[in-house]
Amino acid sequence: MALRDLIPWSRDARSSVPSVFRSDEGDPFLTLHREMNRLFDDVFSRFGAPSVFGRGTWPSIEIVPSDKEVTVTAELPGMEEKDVEVLLDQDVLTIRGEKKAETEDRERRFSERYYGRFERVIPLPFEVDEDRAEASFKNGVLTVTLPRSPKAQEKAKRIPINGKEA
Question: What is the dihedral of CA 143, 80, 103, 101, to 10 degrees?
């Protein structure tokens, strides 16, 4: 095996520009392998399962609970507020939308960007005051703030820790 076989790009003989494609791009078995990985990745992402092949669920979210509220942040780069829908129903938060491609598929030679419809369903750990829920969207980041209901705040009980040794 030559050292150049380990490098994930090669130079096109007709051009001095490096290409992200290897010279074995025409290998039908390698093409089949890549397409099968993409297919499984697409199927499993619809069930909310983490990807075995590297993409993972999208969009990436962060959940930060506190005594009074829970804050859910979702990264949606390249999207606008009008492309995203936020729903709250029976203590389940749903974030869904669609990211559209900026170019036609035939114009793209290589892409690791995600396009298409998405939906994240997030069960909330406590009852939410739906009337005070807020969402904001800035610089491709969606932030949803969900205050605990007064009933849920009453149920939360802090347990003191004794300093005695066992």
Answer: 50
Looking at residue 5, its amino acid is: D
pTM above 0.90, yes or no: no
Domains of the chain in sequence order: 1-11+20-57 (no CATH), 59-156 (2.60.40.790)
Token pair recorded at residue 96: 């869904």
Query: For residue range 136-157, what is the model confidence (pLDDT) as tens digits?
Result: 999 999 999 999 887 766 666 6
Per residue, what are the HEC states of 34-83? HHHHHHHHHHHHCCCCCCCCCCCCCCCEEEEECCCEEEEEEECCCCCHHH
Count of CA atoms in the C-beta half-sphere (13 A) of 92: 7
What is d(CA 55, CA 53) in angstroms, rounded to the nearest whole number? 6
Pairing relationship of beta strands 92-99 and 10-11 according to DSSP bridges: unpaired
Segment holding 142, helix H or strand E:
strand 141-147
Instruction: Report how far residue 152's alpha carbon sits from residue 148's, in angstroms, rounded to the nearest whole number.
Output: 6
